[in-house]
Design a protein that fits this description.
heterodimer; A: about 220 residues; mainly alpha; MetI-like fold; about 80% helix; about 0% strand; flat; B: about 240 residues; alpha/beta; Rossmann fold; 4-stranded antiparallel β-sheet; 9 helices; 10 strands; globular
């Protein structure tokens, strides 16, 4: 036990790590946004009962939820790379998490849609509101409440999953930057400890902000 | 005027409406009574096109409800409906519940819509509850809010589908009072109800539904005191 902690080098490279954290937030946020959009279509596709829509949606959802996220990212980078479709590390990671997010969120949204009773739609339509107006003013706001908590969790999961970028050689996000510094300094514990703290702060800040938004939004 | 001609409707093998003919004049209050499953609620849903029909014709002021060329959203502005399960929009305040459709459907400004809404909500005794969410209201209050919400569209016709059936007994009175008030104001109303005494008091005519048809129709005293058909007599005996 002859290890002496040295925090000075970590402190010194904290700005670099913070920039990395920003990239992490960017990837997680974009993957969440894109994942949500895909998830809406997947959920609607599965609900539609149309074989040609439901079946591909099902394959997507099942694969995303029942295989490791690591393999999903790997496939996008190396798998598609071997057939000539080469993504950058950044793109492979972003698309991988998007794929994963979409699969999980699709199931969440399916549940969310059934959480809004059919009678709400009926009441809105009977007032002369169109299908789109009913969706926008009545169904979606109520559905959002039902899925909000699950979406918050998915975003945290998305932030943590982004650390998998390291397996496809991403060096710009928080984990990538940390690994780069680690390789040069061999201060593994110190660097990864600080990185873990930063992940914790990012996730916690997000969860708390989401709670405040929920409190403002769902006062009923 | 609402004109219903030879309307048939089936759910699978179940013949819910079996050739209904009925005309409701402007200003008339018509009650529909009958056992559950006799088709009266379904009939109501067909009038504003919430349910389709397989045969026959329903026209509202000459506009055919189930014609492909009819803009149902436009037609529904003129036909208010209140449901058994009042269906308040839980994420909107009482005021927002009532202003939503006038704003989004009729294109009224927020101020205009609020003026109308406050007027209607005062009318049903909810002036003090404007900024409250529906979950804080009693069933009777939610039902009165639903009535105000329908009235805020200034409909020509009002349909009521067993509006007191899901309420606690002590809350029935306040909702019936609201309906009474509307009938006195000359609103054209079709009321599906199990409240026989109420039906007798406010209705111009009463239609007795039996097996998907109007088995007997007439003035209240006629239908209740001197029913012509045996089934009507036995139904009336069972509920009075």
């Amino acid at each position: 036990m002859d290890y002496h902690f040295q925090w000075r080098p970590v402190l010194h490279s904290l700005p670099d790590m913070l920039w990395g954290a920003l990239v992490t937030i960017e990837i997680a946020g974009l993957a969440m946004l894109l994942g949500t959009i895909f998830a809406v279509f997947l959920a609607l596709g599965k609900r539609s009962g149309e074989k040609y829509l439901a079946w591909p949606a099902d394959v997507w959802i099942e694969t995303a939820r029942n295989t490791p996220a690591l393999f999903q990212i790997y496939m996008l980078y190396f798998g598609l790379g071997s057939v000539g479709l080469q993504f950058s590390s950044y793109a492979a990671l972003l698309l991988g998490i998007t794929f994963n997010n979409a699969g999980y969120l699709a199931e969440t949204f399916r549940g969310g849609f059934s959480a809004v009773p059919e009678t709400q739609t009926r009441a809105a339509r009977s007032l002369g509101m169109g299908a789109a107006q009913t969706m926008w003013h009545i169904v979606i706001p109520q559905m959002l409440r039902a899925v909000f908590h699950a979406m918050t969790n998915q975003m945290v999961w998305s932030i943590l999953m982004s650390s998998l970028g390291i397996i496809v050689g991403l060096t710009t996000d928080l984990t990538g930057v940390t690994q780069k510094l680690n390789v040069v300094t061999y201060r593994t514990f110190e660097y990864f400890f600080v990185a873990a703290c930063l992940y914790y702060i990012i996730s916690k800040t997000f969860t708390l902000s989401a709670r405040i938004v929920a409190w403002r939004l769902f006062r009923y | 005027m609402i004109r219903i001609e030879n309307v048939h409707k089936q759910f699978g093998a179940l013949h819910v409406l079996n050739g209904v003919d009925l005309t409701v004049q402007k200003g008339e209050v018509l009650s529909m009574i009958g056992g559950s499953g006799s088709g009266k609620s379904t009939m109501l849903m067909c009038i504003n096109g919430l349910e389709g029909i397989q045969q026959g014709r329903i026209t509202v002021d000459g506009v055919e409800v189930h014609s492909k060329n009819t803009d149902l959203n436009k037609l529904r502005r003129r036909i208010g409906i209140v449901f058994q399960q009042w269906n308040a929009f839980p994420h909107l305040t009482v005021l927002e519940n009532v202003t939503l459709a006038p704003r989004k459907v009729l294109g009224k400004s927020k101020e205009e819509a609020e003026t109308i809404a406050i007027e209607q909500l005062s009318h049903v005794g909810l002036r003090e509850k404007l900024s409250v969410f529906p979950s804080r209201l009693s069933g009777g209050q939610q039902q009165r809010m639903a009535i105000a919400r329908a009235l805020a569209m200034s409909p020509d016709y009002m349909l009521f589908d067993e509006v007191t059936s899901a309420l606690d007994p002590q809350l029935v009175g306040e909702v019936l009072d609201t309906l009474r008030m509307l009938s006195k104001e000359g609103m054209t109303m079709i009321v599906v109800t199990h409240e026989m005494r109420f039906a007798r008091e406010v209705s111009d005519r009463i239609a007795f539904f039996y097996k998907g048809q109007i088995h007997e129709i007439g003035k209240p005293h006629q239908l209740f005191d001197n029913p012509v058909k045996e089934e009507t007599a036995s139904f009336v005996r069972s509920v009075l």
